Automatic annotation (TrEMBL):
UniProt pathway annotation: Lipid metabolism
Protein name as catalogued: 1-acyl-sn-glycerol-3-phosphate acyltransferase
Its EC number(s): 2.3.1.-
The gene coding this protein: plsC
Entry-linked PANTHER family: 1-ACYL-SN-GLYCEROL-3-PHOSPHATE ACYLTRANSFERASE (PTHR10434)
Length: 225
């Protein structure tokens, strides 16, 4: 396997410290509800596909599973001490807006080692809370590793820390919905384009379910079709 530049024991030490700290932060300031925690596999690789509402999204991704997760973040964040910190927290750089084969190879290597990954295929934070169309490029990871895909939806963080704010609000309600793993065989059966469309619809449905749980009006995604 390729060397992914990780000293796992040291990396995992920082990861668990960060997990405990961020979990405490989220529980102190926000009211978070979750559905579907049982859908995380107990072992083996998986690809968690999430909508992207704010910089706080990864905190919620790690809160509800004891499994170690790896992330991708845009390469411009990997500068100086902050960049070193991101690497220690299981985050790897990716060039946004273009095909980054090096980042893909890194994540494939991680999946082949049996770890979970969390990706945000929208590419950037939502400007209005809605989920944009999921592109099929990330399915290269599934094709190369045969890992299942887990739909993961966050609702509420856009209001807490929208793209237009430099700092988060320190109160708010959040809903997390974790879908059932989709085995690679089903993805292969549907084909990449059809599965990406199905996944977009699934994430939007989960988000609207979460919005109703929080007492919000569901988004009218039919207008975007």
């Amino acid at each position: 396997m390729n060397n992914i530049g990780v000293r796992f024991k040291r990396t995992f030490f920082f990861y668990w410290i960060a997990k405990l700290s961020t979990t405490s932060f989220m529980r102190i300031f926000y009211r978070v509800r979750v559905k579907g925690k049982e859908n995380f596999p107990e072992k083996g690789a998986f690809i968690m596909v999430s909508n992207h509402q704010s910089f706080l999204d990864p905190m919620l991704a790690v809160m509800y599973t004891w499994r170690v997760l790896f992330f991708l973040a845009r390469d411009t964040l990997f500068k100086g001490l902050f960049g070193q910190l991101l690497l220690k927290l299981n985050t790897r750089p990716v060039k946004r807006g273009e095909s980054d084969l090096k980042a893909m190879r890194t994540m494939i290597d991680i999946l082949q080692r049996g770890y979970g990954t969390c990706i945000y295929p929208e590419g950037t934070r939502t400007p209005d809370g809605r989920i944009s169309e999921i592109k099929p490029g990330f399915l290269l990871l599934a094709r190369k590793t045969k890992a299942p895909v887990i739909p993961f939806v966050i609702e509420g963080l856009h209001e807490i820390w929208p793209k237009t704010q430099s700092k988060p609000n320190l109160s708010g309600r959040v809903m997390v919905e974790i879908g059932e793993p989709v085995p690679y065989e089903k993805i292969q059966e549907q084909g990449a384009e059809n599965f990406a469309k199905w996944l977009t619809d699934k994430l939007r449905q989960m988000q609207n379910d979460a919005r109703v749980e929080l007492g919000k009006e569901p988004f009218d995604y039919e207008r975007l079709s």
